[in-house]
Design brief:
Elements lengths: L3 E5 L6 E5 L4 E6 L6 E7 L3 H10 L5 E2 L8 E9 L2 E8 L6 H11 L3 E4 L20 E5 L15 E5 L11 H4 L2 H8 L20 H16 L3 H4 L24 H8 L36 H14 L17 H6 L4 E2 L5 E2 L4 E3 L7 E6 L17 E6 L12 E2 L8 E4 L13 E7 L5 E8 L40
Parallel strand pairs: 11-19
Antiparallel strand pairs: 1-2, 3-4, 3-5, 4-7, 6-7, 6-8, 9-10, 12-13, 13-16, 14-15, 14-18, 15-17, 18-19
Helix pairs in contact: 7-8
Amino acid sequence: MTALLFLLAACGKGATVLEGPPIGSCAYTSPFSGELECREYYSAEVEYAETDCVELLSTFEPEVSCNVAELMGTCTYSDDDVQIRTYVEGDAPDRCGTNKFGCEFFANGAWEPGANCEGNDEVAVLENPFPQPVRVCVDPIDGEPAGQSEGGQVCTWEVVSGATEDGRSFTDYAECDSVIRQRGFSAAEPDARSLEEDVRMGDTTYVADVDWVRTQIRAGACECCHASAKGVGAAVFDADVDGNLMNQFHDNGLAMGAGWIPTVGFGTYPPEENNGFWRSSPENPNLSVIPTTDPDRIIAIFEAELEHRGLTPADFAGLTYGGAGPLDEQRAFVPDACSEEEGVAPDGTIRWLPGRARYVYVMEADTITPTVPPNLDTPDGTLWRIDVPEDGAPVFSETVVYGQVPAGLTQAWPASGAPEPLVEGRQYYLYASADVLFPISRCLFTAGDPAPSSCDATGGRGGIAGLAGIAALALVGARRKRAPTA
């Protein structure tokens, strides 16, 4: 007999229906959180479940349900036509809120708290927060020429979009630890073409182009996730594997390389600050996703690969977000009016939903929602932004007053001086986040309106504010949506 389980999906998106019983399960260690998780697959083909489980470095168990002793909660969501319920194991109440929002924000799913998370919805990142970019300058390694920076040093931004000098290896001049913490890493299989022989590898001109693409990958932070010998592994394509690198790319990855799918959401430095490397940006959205010193050449190479596969720009016309997935969804987010528990009171006191914030913004109402550094985290229209240092303690709601920087925090915008005063009767955008891309509150308020309804800032829960609301974005316990991948 088929059982149906109906759960309310996040943000009023309807219901997720699980058609049971499950065809089987996959127990694994989350590549993002390092915690134990288990997935049950409903209305799925066995091949789908097996492939998905292999990507998680585990083995699919047919006709076996998940058995989790210490349950934080479950996330139920739909991936194409497949329904999945993920069980998150653990007994860390401080991570319940982040798991909840990870489920709702990343997977568009429904979070059901387990016994270990009942009544706990605070969003907080208390350990291992997002590391802001750091510019590292070191002497060149033995045998390499002097660097282009002062004193002959080689300077490199330690960030996902960073690149060292052309012809060098990123991992020789910067650490991958920060890069991985900024984006998360999960191994993924290359395109099936990578297993086939390719007669084009007998063409010296073609091979020279492929090898040049390898040098561009190695010079950038791409090397951390796309070069198994020097990084932590390989996600889809691996610059260290012999053979035709281009055949490892899936079709969407090639389109991202050619700029046919915009990949603005990943963020980038301007070339003059990034050792001459260009990448897709709001100003140049149709550049390649791979940082490069020669945009025209790399685009031509990827376009030739797409033509070889019989593909045209029309085949990717609807894929506006590229591989940035939630990064682009966040940029495209349109805020609604603040709830009674959110906003800026006439005296400037700022209130947000349950959680401890590392970043607080007040922006013009039509400002694009902030995402990632270096160029998308302080969008045009930002009036005021304050940050908690990486080793600092995040702040509670009602402890921040507009224009006043609390002790231990820094004002990231404006660069100096006080922000513009808020104009009574004018609408503004409040954005408070537990970490980069971990929104707690993102809503519109009107300056001068009466203070939000008063409630105990501790909420009776040891310093957690107010009522339940959206929690922080977390990779922990959240399903990687099957977005176009490089």
